[in-house]
Structures are given as C-alpha cells and as structure tokens.
C-alpha cells in the first residue's frame, strides 16, 4: 500500500515539474508548483501512516501544511490577478520586468 502512494506522489511530482517548466502562463506555473507540493504532502502522509498508524499526529501536521499551502496559493493567485489587471501581463517572461 505504501508503494502505491509513493508511486502516486512520484507521478504528481513529475507532472507538476513538467507543468512548471514547460508553461509560460503564470497561472499554469503556479498549478505545477501546487502539484509538486501536493506530491510531497501525499508522500509525507503515506510514510507517517506507514510508520505509526495509531498516532494521527503526522496526518494532522499534513493537514495544517495543506491549509498553509492553500492560503499561500490564494495569495499567489491574487498577486497574479493584480499584475494582470495592472499591466495586462500573463506570461512569466513579461512579468519579470515589472519593477517600479
């Protein structure tokens, strides 16, 4: 059972890495990063459940980390929307020169 969850985590990490490196849209890059972070969460929860299934402390920590990740991604999407509304830029190449 642990191997299946670790395989799922590896697949999520690979898809997220491909999505983050191959896309130029800010939203798609953020979605790739979200998938990679979710892969780490799945792997951590699976390992913690495999090592100590009686104690829920590992799963609680993963849930707290998921909550923090959701807040972080919401703030990232808000920043991406603010950049798009201010400068009409939605690709990462053009977003790098937004100083000033």
Explain this structure:
The radius of gyration is 17 Å and the shape is elongated. The protein is built from 4 helices and no strands. It has 100 residues and is mainly α. The longest helix has 31 residues, at 57-87. It has helices at 2-22, 26-51, 57-87, 92-95. It has one domain (2-91): Helix Hairpins (Orthogonal Bundle).
Task: Set down the secondary structure blueprint.
Elements: H1 2-22, H2 26-51, H3 57-87, H4 92-95
- Percent in strands: under 5%
**Structural class by secondary-structure content:** mainly alpha
Tally of extended strands? Answer: 0
Q: What is the helix content?
A: over 70%
Largest sheet: none
Radius of gyration: 17 Å
Q: Give the distance, in angstroms, between the N- and C-terminal Cα atoms.
A: 52 Å
- Which regions contain 5 or more consecutive residues with pLDDT less than 50? none
Mean pLDDT: 85
| Run of helices and strands | HHHH
Number of helices: 4
CATH fold annotation? Helix Hairpins
- Which CATH class applies here? Mainly Alpha
Shape: elongated
Task: Just name the CATH architecture.
Answer: Orthogonal Bundle
Counted up, domains total 1
Summary of the model, kept short:
The chain is an all-alpha fold and 100 residues long. The protein is 82% helix and 0% strand.
Q: Which descriptors apply to this entry?
A:
4 helices, Helix Hairpins, mainly alpha, elongated, 100 residues
């Amino acid at each position: 059972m642990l191997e299946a969850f670790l395989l799922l985590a590896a697949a999520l990490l690979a898809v997220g890495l491909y999505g983050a490196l191959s896309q130029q849209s800010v939203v798609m890059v953020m979605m790739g990063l979200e998938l990679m972070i979710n892969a780490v969460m799945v792997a951590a929860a699976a390992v913690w459940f495999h090592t100590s299934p009686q104690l829920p402390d590992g799963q609680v920590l993963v849930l707290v980390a998921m909550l923090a990740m959701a807040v972080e991604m919401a703030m990232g999407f808000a920043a991406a929307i603010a950049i798009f509304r201010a400068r009409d830029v939605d690709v990462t190449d053009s977003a790098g020169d937004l100083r000033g």
